[in-house]
Each structure stands twice: as C-alpha cells, then as structure tokens.
Amino acid sequence: RELMNCLVAYEDSDSDTEKSEISTQSKYEKSRDGDHPRIYCQSPSANDRQATYRNAIPELSKCWDMGHQIGLDNVVGPQMEYKSALRTSAARIPSASLSSQISGPTVIENAARDSLYHNKKRKLDETVSTQGTIKPYIPKRLRQVQILSSNNTKTSVYQEVPVSFVASDTAELPSPSTFYTVSDFIQPYLETSGRSYDIPKDMIFHMNAHSGPVNRVHWCPVRQYSHLLLSASMDNTIKVWNAVDTGTCLRTYSCHSSAVRDAQWSSCGTRILSGGFDSMLYLTDTETGKLLFSGENEFRISCLKFHPNNPDVSVCGGFSAMVNAWDTRTPKIINVYKAAVQQTLDILFINEGREVLTTTDAVSRDSADRTIIAWDFLTAAKISNQIFHERYTCPTMACHPKESVFVAQTNGNYIALFSTQRPYKMNRRKRYEGHKVEGFAVGCEFSPDGTFILTGSSEGKVYFYNYYTSRIAHSIPAHSTACVSINCHPVLPSLLATCDWDGVIKIWQ
Length: 509
Prior knowledge:
The protein is an alpha+beta fold. Helices cover 15% and strands 33% of the residues. The protein is built from seven helices and 32 strands. Strands 4-9-8-7-6 form a five-stranded antiparallel beta sheet, with no helix packed on it. It has a four-stranded antiparallel beta sheet with strand order 5-32-31-30, with no helix packed on it. A hairpin with a 5-residue loop joins strand 8 and strand 9.
C-alpha cells in the first residue's frame, strides 16, 4: 500500500498536461541496459515535481520471504512455469534503497509475470525463425498446374541409387566427352529442316547383341546426339548404340530384374525412362549409369511415356486397370487413371499434354467400348470411352506431327485414323490395311514430314502407307520374325531403325 501511494502523482502539478502524462505512464518498463524490471516512481519529497526512476525492488532475501508468503512452494502442475519464472526474476533482482517501503506479493507477482511474458515471446520468435515463414495452403489441382507449368530448366533433386552397369564386349567404355559427340554424318543436316522423307531400301547395320526379343527402339530426340539409339529387351537389359557411325553397342544398363517392356529417352537426351515386368519404373542417367528415380507400381509395366511439356512427369501402365502418373522429383504418384479394364496396352499424349489416351483390352461380344479412353491429364477425369466401337484391340498409337489426327494399330490387320479434337471421331473413309498383326504388339508411326505411315508386321515386313491415299507405297522384308517396333531418325531423312522378336536390330537407309 505504501508503494501504491508512492506511485500516485501529486495534485499540485501546474498543468493538466503534466498530470495526464504522469497518470498514463506505465508502472513497469524493461530496462534498456538489462533485463531487470524497473518501476516508474515519483518521490514525494521532490522539489522539481518531476517523475524519477528509482529501483523499487527488495533485497534477494526478502524476495524469497515474500515468495513463501504467497505460497511459492505450493505452486504445482500447470503453474510450474510461473513458479520457475518467479524464482528467476527474484534471483536477478538487486538490492534497492526502497526495500523498506515495499511489502506484499504485488511487486513479485508482477515481475514474474513480466519475465514470463518475455520468455514466451523469445521462444515464439525462435520457433518462427527456425520454421520460416508460414505458407498458405495451395489446392491440389493448383499444385498440379504449377508442376506442369514449371520451367524445364529448373533444377531437380533426384535420389541417386547405384545401378549395375555393364560395358559392352564389342566396344570400350567411352568417356562422357566422347559419348555425346556430333556425328560427321549428322552434322551437314543440322542446319536444314523440312526435308521430304525418302523411303529406305538398303540395310547398313545388323546388330544382335541382345539375347532376347527387343520390344522397343528409340532414337535420341536431341538433334546433335541423334546418332544414339536406345533399345529395350526381354533379356532384362537396356542398350545404347552408335547406330549411325559404327553400329556398335556403347553401354548396357542392367537395372531391371525382369524383362524390360518399354524405354524412352528424355527430351534432354541425358536420361532414360524404363519399365518392365518387375513392376519398377526407373530413370537412369546415361553418362554415370546411376538411378535418378525409382518407383514401384502394383502391376507389371507394359507401356510408358514422358509428358511432352514437363520432363519431370511420366505416365506408366500395364497389367492393371490403373495408369499411374509419377513426379520423378518427389518421387510420388500425382494422379491415377482407373477404368474397368484388365490391361493398358499403350499411352499417347495429345493436345500439348492436356489430354492423354490409353488403349485397353476391354472387348465385349459385339463391340470394343473402352478400347480407347480419353482422360483429362490434370484431373484424371474420363472424357470419353466411346471412341472406337469395332471389336478389335489397339496395341499401339501414334500422333501426326503436323495435323490434329492420330492413328491406332488394331488387331484387325488395319490402322484406324481418328481426330484429336473432341469427340475424337474416327475417319471411316480411310483405313490402312494390307499388313498382319495377329496378336503382336506391332508398332506404327508417322514419317517426320507426315506423308507416310510406317508399321511393322507379324510376318517381319515393314510397310509404308501413303497418308493421303491410304495405299501401300512400299514394303521391306526386314526380319524373319515379327517386327514389333520401328522408329524414324529425327534428322537424317531416310534412316530407319527396326527390331524383331529374335533380338535383332537393323538400320535401314
């Protein structure tokens, strides 16, 4: 009570402004020089009628006595932090000349409460500084749009896992500097574009290093390094060849424990995406031979594709009703496309990657509803499953390089033509027939200029159809067994790679 009387400003102040300033002043203020609590105190005997700062804290021994008077030792439970703060503040209180004027628990409790407030504020500041700024919630659909619209040059973080790397017996292991070199045959054609396609007729290389059937051949999409050819085989290996200069195997990657069903180059030409019957999806660095990404699926993989605008996103399907979309940077499944089918045969992106087509084995008695299904890539919503109504499955598809159409290989021994615009109407006036499929996953594709449709066959021949007249322009007796994959060179106007069920790869010019 005596202290409270000391804290009241006298009524003999000359101005009302001075009275209001003194009355509105805080009783307590943290010292700028230290953490000791201080009190605004006006001396009753001051002649200049000005408020002065004076230490009004009792001695340390008296503080402990006062603490026992308010039941400091009996504080338990949730008030333990208050008790600790009270002792801490009391231990830091120096002796003062006004200790005889202060009595009761008021000063001690207020000092402890002030110390507790600053301790909590310091802990909150430390928590915010360690956790960083609080980020707002972003919906899943918006995050997917940001992923697809992200810059391709953005640095990605991958998980590096050692992979079994085997060099070829027919060629020494090249260094990275010699692995990516511009071929002398390709150099003159790098500056030219729009050349008409010439039908190849002569075989220049015969490569048979694989010990099992070859399911896929794919030229490197980078024009400077398009002398590299990728092959995926049932012998559990992936090989990279110099199929333009020497026709030799440069490297062999043995990351899969079972047959490799499909493989594809990335758009930058430095990574290989592969999937097989071991249910694993791998992304391999071509120079170091290390795994950059590995994703385990619940089904055996039979087809896969990179997203055309985002190389960090890939889609795979196989012996299941599901098609998984992976983000190789996470690595996580970002979308699942599920239909009432048993197997996915092929995947094709259309309309700049906004939509994706899948072919299935869903064939009923009278029609083939759900044989070709169109999906919205971002939302995984089914757009249409009433595209192809004939009772044949479609093992492969290909998109025209210039026009808004795509073709589908059918087991009815013909190729059907469709529009890429909704409702994906089939062109019933054009049908490319004359070759045999007979249950094989025979591949087909357009020539780089879009004037020819190329396809293999179960009898080993390669057929060239005129896109405009739908007639056979030429055929090559390429292999003795089923020719299941073909791929046109992206730069050289008349170079073609083919493979068959015996593990033989041939280069035609």
